[in-house]
Amino acid sequence: MNASKNLLFFALVGLSWSCAHYTDPLTPDEALKSFTLSDDRLQIEVFAAEPHVLDPVEMVFDEEGNAFVVEMPDYPSKPEDGTLGGAIRLLRDTNQDGRIDSAIVFADNLSEATSVLPWEGGLLVAAAPDILFLKDTTGDYRADIREVLFTGFFANNSEAQITNLHYNVDNWIYASNCGQDGLVKFMRNPKLPPISVKGGDFRFRLDRGQFEIESSTGQFGMSVDDWGNRFFTENSLHIQHAPIAGRYLFRHPFLPSYDVALNISDHDPEMFQETPAPYWRQERTKRRNEQFAEAKLDRHEYAEDHFTGASGGTFYGGNLLPADYRGSVFTGEVAGNLIHRDIVQPLPNSPTFVAKRGEKEKTTEFLTSSDPWFRPAQLSVGPNGVLYVIDMYRQHIETPTAIPEDLKEEMDFFNGNKLGRIYQIVPKEAKLTHEAPKLRSKSSAELVALLAHPQQWWRLNAQRLLLERKDKSVLPAVTDLFLTHADARARLHAFFVLEGLNALTLSLIKKALADAQPDLRAYSLIEAEKWSELLPQLIEKTTDVSPKVSFQACLSLGQFTSPSVSNALAKALSQHVQDKWYRMGILSSEAGASFTLIEVLQREGFFDRMIPDKESFLNDFAHVVRARNRSGEVQRLALLLKKK
Amino acid sequence: MKRREFITIALPILPTTAFLVSSCQPKSASQSETTDPCKDFSTVSENDLKTRKKLGYVDASPRAESQCGNCNLWLPPKDGKACGGCMLFKGPVQTAGYCTYWAPQSK
Q1: Could you say which of A198, A308, A642 has the minimum Cβ distance to residue B62?
Q2: Can you give the pTM of this predicted structure?
Q3: Helix runs in B25-88, H state only
Q4: Is the peptide bond before A253 cis (omega within 30 degrees of 0)?
Q5: Residues 6+ apart with CB under 8 A from A164
Q6: Residues A581, A577: Cα–Cα separation, whole Å
Q7: A181 vs B contacts (CB less than 8 Å)
Q8: pLDDT, tens digit (0-9, with 9 covering 90-100), for A363-414
Q9: Which residue does chain A place closest to B77, by CA atoms?
Q10: What does the pLDDT average to over A422-433?
Q11: B58 touches chain A (CB under 8 A)
């Protein structure tokens, strides 16, 4: 680092806050030396640093290849004078050398913006209590349109607010709400009644004016795989999945439980950090453990080497990293100063997943740092397949109210709020392309071809733009892609372009129901719900070899009420009673919680040999019966069960 | 388990979720706030009340499976006491409560 850069760095940092317990910050180039990558085929480089980026918590690339960064300098508390420091910056690499050399403030004065999503030439912004739409219409890269789309989200804790905006392959936009309470109103149609998002996340479609609670409870980090499966990050629980979507789970209010957040990690809670726990954490944990012992509680808290600050789970849908990384989920751990990697696989006999460590990462992490300031809050995958690490770079990350007063005396929670780093992880010898995608200048036919691109970023953005254009001239080409392409991912994107353009026909859905790829079959079942003439096919799919498909068939069947539905659900329950998700998913529907279903089970001898899973289903069924309190049902159930 | 055994166990099950309790069992006078020791903040400092608010504490968790009662920082009621507490702030805490700092219990 030359002298002028040294001066600039220390000017930005301001006074050194060094004390016996906490270290000083490193320069970006010094910080590079603190990293250890578990794979020597890879290297990490600086992509952006202060002063071009400060306190970054997310970076996304719009369809043109512009990198937008969300900055959160107001963490962990908003200034008392009412000013708002939250901003979104557009980063520029003017000399095309792969390192950011300038930045434009796209929007500022934002209240706790944590996530953005490119949309219709602007950005959707999650900024509790709102989701905003910001757009520049003058060409100066400064947002001059500011529209509140949704309002009413919880806004009292910056670590648990509306965030993680993701456009998914099913044409819905998903956001994490951490299960917080809130009555959410859609400002483009204020006559619609507000919806409660308490206990769930949120999803919406602006093209159809739809919005609803979703069943997951993500905090900061949502990874969406090639098939649209969502995995979410939540502090100690670094990777979770919600097997039942909200539109099914909340069909009636009588289930004994609505919790579908499943920790899919098979290696919790251990992580392998290089940094020792900071003094405040060591001391606080010691005190807490003393309290546990004093209260004779069989509990323990760990100051280090256990997940506690998992953040920013990100699916790697690129193809730049070696093939063994494709489909991995990368998650930052801001307390352990590391990046963890999961290999996520579908379970063979249940509609969910397991997340495993890689073979070379059984006792180490994908990336560790010896610098306690390294705060990998989020990751991002660029159009060129680069894996980016969004490093907030702070001395402390923790809710101040959770730290004893005496320990806070030597802590400055804003130390580092003039710093920020973004790194890129690439293969050694990789020849990176810095050519901007410029998708807006492409013809609709070119966008159709991109639905089959090997990288997720291109497929999703092409799909999004095709729906934005509403150009129906592409329908023959998209239909052909759906019917003939060898890559199931291309067929899936084509299927949902057709869905988004209202061009899915009965024959196309039938074709999708017979697709070789289970996820595509499962999505086609959701579409089949709109066609009563497809009920026989829905029933047939309850016996599909793929649990993903047979489970979705059970959920979709629950949208119907004919006696044949209860019959099919009873058979599916008999076959899958040992799986919690089938029991819960079936019971979430009117037909699955009906006496017709119980009578079928009785006839089929389901109750002749009771096992704990059958008892569990009956317990839950009885709960539903009591809760809905329909005349005579309790007695009816008792009589039914007494029959020989 | 035999069917008869099941009936005796399953049918008396009371709804457990907060909304069911509130809809099926109207509050009795004994549960009113004025006499509920779990709502008595007379001995709690302003600072602790602020901390409670900052952490987003609510008496009824928005997430049924994440409640104070199964949080790692939960302090169960001591002998003879009606309500528990929390390691993060002073004052009474409801078993069914919640704050944004909730963490699963570990051993």
Answers
A1: A198
A2: 0.92
A3: 46-54
A4: no
A5: A115, A126, A174, A175, A176, A218, A220, A221, A222, A232
A6: 9
A7: 58, 62
A8: 999 999 999 999 999 999 999 999 999 999 999 999 898 999 999 999 999 9
A9: A295
A10: 94
A11: yes
